[in-house]
Amino acid sequence: MLGTIINVGAVSTGSLIGIALGNRLKENVRNMVFDCIGLMTLLIGFQMAFKTKNVLLILGSLLVGGIVGEYFDIEEKLRGISSKIQASFHMEDHSYFVDGFVTASVLFCVGPMAILGSIQDGLTGDFTILAIKSALDGFASIGLATAFGWGVFFSILSVALFQGSITCTASWLDRFMNDQMIAEMTAVGGLLIVAIGIRLLQIKDIKVANLLPALFFAPIAVRTISAIRHLIAN
């Protein structure tokens, strides 16, 4: 899990730098930071989303995943966890803490590098992908923490749990996943990142965390369609 440890260290360092910078910025400058991050997030998300080969599969994954997410209200549970962390460290006066935690947690965990890098780290001990991701997340966390503050720092808990779990189950995931499944999962993750950008730009308050199950339904849908085609062909 060396790759995840490096990733956690990069996000921690970037967040601390961003917090130090954010405390010195005027409100209008911080709002501009929000807008810049939102626009860049949209760009990254669309680049990932365009990797899909089957738009209907993505739509189905989002619909099913969104319904499941709404049923369990993942966003509210994640906000509840964030609020408990905020209270534990007596940071109730940090108004953006919860939003920062939720936004950073989703952003740092839904990309393909988090999944592929963690699998590679678990199977071979090669943390190259996660090292590259760490550099990207480190710079992103500076911008996010400038706007959101300490909530971004504590997203390291989500990163450690998510990537650590994938690393520990890497051998099973490697047998289950193929390139097409990863591509469609990446596309779904891209749309979730687009949703984060929309939230940052205050266009619409989309419950992004409630869409997270779509990440798991996308590869399942690919596998199911492949199995049906195989049966029909035979």
Give a structural overview.
This protein has 234 residues and is mostly helical. It has one domain (2-233). Helices cover 81% and strands 0% of the residues. The protein has helices at residues 2-22, 27-49, 55-72, 74-88, 97-109, 112-124, 128-148, 150-153, 156-168, 170-176, 179-200, 214-233. Helix 2 runs antiparallel to helix 7 and helix 6 packs across helix 7 (128-148). It starts with a helix and ends with a helix.
Q: Domain count, please report it.
A: 1
Low-confidence regions = none
Radius of gyration: 18 Å
Q: What do the pLDDT scores average to? A: 89
Tally the helices. 12
- Alpha-carbon distance between the two ends: 43 Å
Q: Name the helicity range.
A: over 70%
Structural classification: mainly alpha
Largest beta-sheet characterization: none
SSE arrangement, N to C: HHHHHHHHHHHH
Strand content: under 5%
Count of extended strands: 0
